[in-house]
Amino acid sequence: MPSELLLPGKTVVITGGAGGLGQAMATRFASEGARVVIADLDLAAAESVAGELSGEALAVRTDISDPDDVARLVSTTVEATGSLDVLVNNAGITRDASIRKMTIEQWDLVQSVHLRGAFLATKAAAEVMREQRSGAIVNISSLSGKVGNFGQANYSTAKSGLIGLTKVTAKEYARFGVRANAVQPGLIRTAMTEALSPEIWNQKLAEIPLGRAGEPDEVAKVVLFLSSELSSYMTGAVLEIGGGRYM
Question: Where is the Ketoreductase domain (predicted)?
Answer without folding.
Answer: 10-191
